[in-house]
């Protein structure tokens, strides 16, 4: 009988075939490989952790990693011919790291594959609340939720009664930001790309108002309709013409948390914003931020949001796709607006 060290299994993987210099990515830019294998034991003398991957997160920032950058970005480019990597949830199969033991559940950066050998497990977070659906750690209790938390509370510095606008509000981050803002006592409006999503924002997530930006010929006038006295806080997920329209409607000393700009990721030449001088005249604070800089806030964030979930004081919507082979289509769907809620791929349910 083979020893544990001799157990080798097939390890299906999703690889990036080549860099994508411009335009929207396609499913054919990725490929499922079913011929790889992996040994179910960490290398002797290492500090590694071996994971069986359960859930994968599809996130807009992953598009930027598909392009080769001459200047280093805040995250490394993907490597053509190697597995795509992203945030996900896994179960520890073997570990030589003192912080993780066999059977632990973790979230962090993992490969788009059935098993991942994590040689630098410092970026993994142990999951303490296994009574909550594990897939939530790809979103509301993981990177996405922490992004919403620090972006709204730390970057935006909200005050009760302020007027808040959230773009891409039905997406993974936006739906959570809007609920944080409502709980804080703010007036909240969100934009989305379909009537179905607009309805969800108002009926499920509790936004005061919402609108379909695709039906608005003039975004500046649309925002003026919902914010006749102006916007105090803008949670920026879109960029381009939406940012320009927002600047026209910002109040003096308003704050903008620049979380992402999904409208720009597939463009050969990013769109310009032509009214940036309004930042000066209106004394607006516009601040970009990366969730990686705020990992120290995670324990506090996790306990607060777990309690909100248990008390049913926050709603969360997932768009779940079954099977690693369907991960490329799920990722592409983000840029076509197909997902409703947080896009999650199930690799295995144990």
UniProtKB/TrEMBL annotation:
<protein>
    <submittedName>
        <fullName>NADPH-dependent double-bond reductase 2</fullName>
    </submittedName>
</protein>
<keyword id="KW-0521">NADP</keyword>
<dbReference type="GO" id="GO:0032440">
    <property type="term" value="F:2-alkenal reductase [NAD(P)H] activity"/>
</dbReference>
<comment type="subunit">
    <text>Homodimer.</text>
</comment>
<dbReference type="InterPro" id="IPR013149">
    <property type="entry name" value="ADH-like_C"/>
</dbReference>
<comment type="similarity">
    <text>Belongs to the NADP-dependent oxidoreductase L4BD family.</text>
</comment>
<dbReference type="InterPro" id="IPR011032">
    <property type="entry name" value="GroES-like_sf"/>
</dbReference>
<dbReference type="InterPro" id="IPR041694">
    <property type="entry name" value="ADH_N_2"/>
</dbReference>
<dbReference type="GO" id="GO:0006950">
    <property type="term" value="P:response to stress"/>
</dbReference>
<feature type="domain" description="Enoyl reductase (ER)">
    <location>
        <begin position="49"/>
        <end position="345"/>
    </location>
</feature>
<keyword id="KW-0560">Oxidoreductase</keyword>
<dbReference type="InterPro" id="IPR020843">
    <property type="entry name" value="ER"/>
</dbReference>
<dbReference type="InterPro" id="IPR036291">
    <property type="entry name" value="NAD(P)-bd_dom_sf"/>
</dbReference>
<dbReference type="Pfam" id="PF00107">
    <property type="entry name" value="ADH_zinc_N"/>
</dbReference>
<dbReference type="InterPro" id="IPR045010">
    <property type="entry name" value="MDR_fam"/>
</dbReference>
<dbReference type="Pfam" id="PF16884">
    <property type="entry name" value="ADH_N_2"/>
</dbReference>
């Amino acid at each position: 009988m083979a020893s544990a060290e001799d157990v080798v299994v097939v390890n299906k993987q999703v690889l990036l075939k080549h860099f994508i210099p411009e335009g929207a990515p396609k499913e054919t830019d990725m490929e499922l490989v079913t011929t790889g294998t992996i040994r179910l034991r960490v290398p002797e003398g290492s500090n590694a952790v071996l994971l069986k991957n359960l859930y994968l997160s599809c996130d807009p920032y992953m598009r930027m990693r598909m392009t080769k950058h001459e200047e280093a970005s805040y995250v490394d480019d993907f490597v053509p011919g190697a597995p795509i990597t992203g945030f996900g949830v896994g179960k520890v199969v073997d570990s030589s790291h003192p912080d993780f033991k066999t059977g632990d559940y973790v979230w962090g950066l993992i490969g788009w594959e059935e098993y991942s050998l994590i040689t630098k497990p410092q970026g993994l977070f142990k999951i303490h609340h296994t009574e909550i659906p594990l897939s939530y750690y790809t979103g509301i209790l993981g990177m996405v939720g922490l992004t919403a938390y620090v972006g709204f509370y730390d970057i935006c510095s909200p005050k009760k009664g302020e007027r808040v606008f959230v773009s891409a509000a039905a997406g993974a981050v936006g739906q959570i930001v809007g609920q944080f803002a409502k709980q804080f006592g703010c007036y909240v409006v969100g934009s989305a790309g379909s009537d179905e999503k607009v309805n969800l924002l108002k009926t499920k997530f509790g936004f005061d108002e919402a609108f379909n930006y695709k039906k608005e010929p003039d975004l500046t006038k649309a925002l003026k309709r919902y914010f006749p006295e102006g916007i105090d806080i803008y949670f920026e997920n879109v960029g381009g013409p939406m940012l320009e329209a927002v600047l026209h409607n910002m109040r003096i000393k308003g704050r903008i948390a620049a979380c992402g700009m999904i409208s720009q990721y597939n463009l050969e030449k990013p769109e310009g914003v032509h009214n940036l001088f309004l930042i000066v005249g209106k004394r607006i604070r516009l601040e970009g931020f990366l969730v990686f800089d705020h990992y120290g806030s995670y324990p506090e964030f996790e306990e607060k949001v777990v309690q909100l979930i248990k008390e049913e004081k926050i709603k969360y919507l997932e768009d779940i796709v079954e099977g690693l082979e369907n991960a490329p289509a799920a990722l592409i769907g983000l840029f076509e607006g197909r997902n409703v809620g947080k896009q999650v791929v199930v690799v295995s349910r144990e």
